[in-house]
Write a structure and sequence with these properties.
mainly alpha, 4% strand, two-stranded antiparallel sheet, 2 strands, 188 residues, elongated
Length: 188
């Protein structure tokens, strides 16, 4: 019996470690794929807000169209993305977050843009309305962001890696723009 245990330890224990490492690396790549989608959408959201602040309505329209297309592409990708090792919570939370982004890009952002268009004609922006729309977006995002970040932390913990804010992938967060989640990147 001792010989059998020793053979098991010699053959299977060293094999198990590289397999676990491979699983961890694949989990990191899975997480990072979602983070990259977030960063792409976040940059477009920021560019949309910046173009409105500069009162460049034409650029805002182009960016909004690109944002809407990008969000639909990412939603489709997330919808068809398989669960990772039977774990679908991160993917589902990301899907829900992107559904929220798409809703904002289809509803609140066009309403904000309409206010800026009206201001071009009247010379006065209805700041109260814009602030209310942005506050509504922030409130809706808060729940989805919290759920996503919690799912992401649980996923990382389950698969043995840690998260940190990735400054390379960060885009500046400005208080006067619609809020976007700060992407969490992995560390080994």
């Amino acid at each position: 019996m001792r010989t059998l245990i020793l053979i098991y330890a010699i053959i299977f224990v060293p094999i198990r470690s590289p397999l676990a490492q491979n699983l961890k690396e694949r989990a990191i790549l899975y997480n990072d794929g979602i983070v990259l989608k977030q960063v792409e959408a976040g940059r477009l959201m920021q560019l949309f807000g910046e173009s409105l602040q500069k009162k460049d309505i034409r650029l805002a329209e182009k960016v909004l169209a690109e944002l809407q297309n990008t969000l639909q592409k990412h939603i489709t990708s997330l919808k068809t993305m398989p669960a990772f090792e039977g774990n679908s919570t991160l993917r589902n939370a990301a899907y829900d977050l992107f559904q929220l982004y798409a809703s904002v890009a289809s509803n609140e952002y066009p309403a904000i843009m309409a206010e800026y268009r009206a201001a071009e004609l009247s010379g006065k922006l209805n700041e109260e309305r814009v602030i209310k729309l942005l506050e509504d977006v922030r409130q809706r995002e808060a729940t989805a962001d919290k759920t996503f970040l919690e799912s992401q932390k649980n996923f990382a913990q389950h698969f043995g890696f840690s998260l940190k804010e990735n400054e390379r992938m960060q885009y500046p967060v400005r208080e006067d723009l619609p809020s976007t989640p700060r992407p969490q990147h992995r560390t080994k």
